[in-house]
Specification:
Elements lengths: L21 H15 L3 E6 L7 E6 L5 E6 L3 H6 L12 E6 L13 E5 L4 E5 L8 H23 L23
Parallel strand pairs: 3-4, 4-5
Antiparallel strand pairs: 1-2, 2-3, 5-6
Amino acid sequence: MRPPVQPNDIPSNDASTEPLQPGQRLARGVSRHLRALGFATLEEFVPARGLRVDVLGLGPKGELWVIECKSSRADFRADSKWQGYLEWCDRYFWAVDMAFPVDVLPEGTGLIVADDYDAEVIRMAAETKLAPARRKKLIQKFAMDAARRLQSIRDPRPGWDGQFFADPTHQGPKAGE
């Protein structure tokens, strides 16, 4: 019989001990608000190679909202990819804090004012319905990503290179194997 696995044997993937960056704090407040509206959210969602949205919200009727969190004018000005996100959602929003100069944000996009703990939709984004095939693909990817993230919390060390090992002391393949 092998000895039980000790807590120090499994590396922690708990990011809660690291301080949140300003955009991450906005994303948390946005996610909390959307949850109150009946949405499920994923932060740092990748809809397609080369794109990463700060928050993707999946609504109770299957609607998909992309929310980009901007902590400063410089952060907004540095974002050259945001228009590429428009084809991956029904509504597009900016999330900013109370001090952000909202007059620089483009017309036709939504506005959410947020802090670490909550948010409020100030301006509803224009709706552009996704094509059914793209919606289905995104919802499936949302579900798979969410399930994988949940599983990684439950089982942070399932194996190496897709291989599962019964021995928790196994260190993976050696060089040249």
